[in-house]
Specification:
Chain lengths: 230, 230
DNA sequence: TGTTAAAACTGATAAAAGTCATTTACAAAG
DNA sequence: CTTTGTAAATGACTTTTATCAGTTTTAACA
């Protein structure tokens, strides 16, 4: 089910939305469709980037490992998103790893192909620039919240982030299967601490859990707890 | 002493290093030279950006204020650096404030001037893109360190950052006058905690202080403590 | 369906950092 | 040169979060 760029679901929303039909065809001829199992490494911290990934399906975490083995998630990536462009632009080694949180499919576009495209299509280049500015803003938000908010608030925020990132069906109650370990490295705290506050949220009827699956029952309460708007 | 773009000290190192002489002249005719006293606000969180700042002299902190009044410094800006481009690119309100840490001089370039330049000169646009990628990488580093390192290590890192950013004379011992309040909001901790660890560093002969002036005596020790390389 | 490994959960305790109160040092102004 | 306000420094204490050790639940598989 190797998808074609010209008929891709994300043709009008991805980084390549301003590509001509010709450019898309060219991309399509030179891309490489890849499948990753849950937990599999897509690229690894310290390696040289060979190109760009365009996620077609699944969930990906971008994270860095500390010397003590602790992990910090920097960004969550969903289908339609681009992955691995920062190192490519900077022409540096990957400073973080990308790991599939679910079975994931992604197209790979070589560095030369990518560079040629941004050199030849000004719109793509300026979309890329805006994307960088947006991601920089998001990262600054994360930094500030990490420095200023207690874990309980950050956990509420993380759950809302997961919902806003991965809830496409907009079903009544959003559910996601995520290990407490992964959740704790999004929040930037210890696994046990996440579990404790999750238990609080359960008692308060804000979420429910079944194994590693978390269901958000009261997003409004989470928004309140996160104090994102004050 | 309104400096001219064509003879500016940073002509070959700034974001505008790839501008033609004509473009620089045009910039020069349309820029506006501003002076800010220590502590003065250059731009304020929540306001609409009207243009770009190019710092000619001085020191600037870019920071965000939490609802509880606590401040987190996102970035330190030195002479030759550009300031306020993220909001401009994203076409959004400032998400942070810029405040002079010292008496500062900066040229202001209007948004239309800036946009015209990056539309007409591809090299400037791609330099800007690389700059964004670089700053994003730096911010991710800060995020990870904030999440994983204890205050003592982050303080060592902050002192090294101040040195690498503001030490131009490369004199034997770098000194900087900075309030403990400002230092603590770079590190992301409380003022008293910074003071305590600074006292430790003094006892260990790593730094010395006189009032609010801090002198780094053993940068090598700080590098060790910061554990930046493991 | 029992077995087992892994992950979720809980409790006790320790460590790290924050807060508040107070003293000391510094620098500007009279 | 003294006064005075501000910032640095220190101490006592509290809160938050991490760590460690253990128990229970879950899910995969024989």
């Amino acid at each position: 089910m190797n998808p074609s760029c010209n008929t891709c679901e994300f043709k009008n929303s991805s980084l390549f939305k301003n590509c001509s039909s010709d450019e898309l065809n060219h991309l399509n001829d030179n891309k490489c469709f890849n499948v990753y199992k849950k937990g599999q490494v897509i690229f690894h911290e310290g390696n040289r980037p060979l190109g760009l990934f365009c996620v077609f399906n699944g969930k990906v975490k971008v994270s860095r490992l500390g010397s003590d083995g602790k992990e910090q998630v920097i960004r969550l990536v969903k289908k339609g998103d681009t992955l691995g462009y920062r190192s490519l632009i900077e022409n540096s080694k990957y400073s973080a790893s990308a790991i599939a949180l679910d079975d994931t499919e992604a197209c790979f576009i070589s560095a030369s192909e990518f560079n040629h495209l941004i050199d030849s299509n000004v719109k793509v280049a300026s979309d890329l620039m805006r994307m960088l500015a947006k991601v920089l803003g998001d990262t600054q938000d994360k930094l500030v919240h990490l420095a200023m908010k207690p874990v309980r608030e950050r956990l509420a925020e993380a759950l809302l982030l997961l919902k806003s990132t991965y809830d496409d069906k907009k079903s009544e109650h959003f559910s996601i299967s995520i290990s407490r370990e992964d959740l704790s490295s999004i929040v930037g705290t210890a696994k046990e601490t996440v579990i404790r506050f999750l238990s609080e949220f359960k008692e308060e009827g804000i979420v429910s859990t079944r194994g590693s699956e978390i269901t958000i029952l009261r997003a409004d309460k989470l928004l309140q707890i996160s104090s994102l708007y004050d």
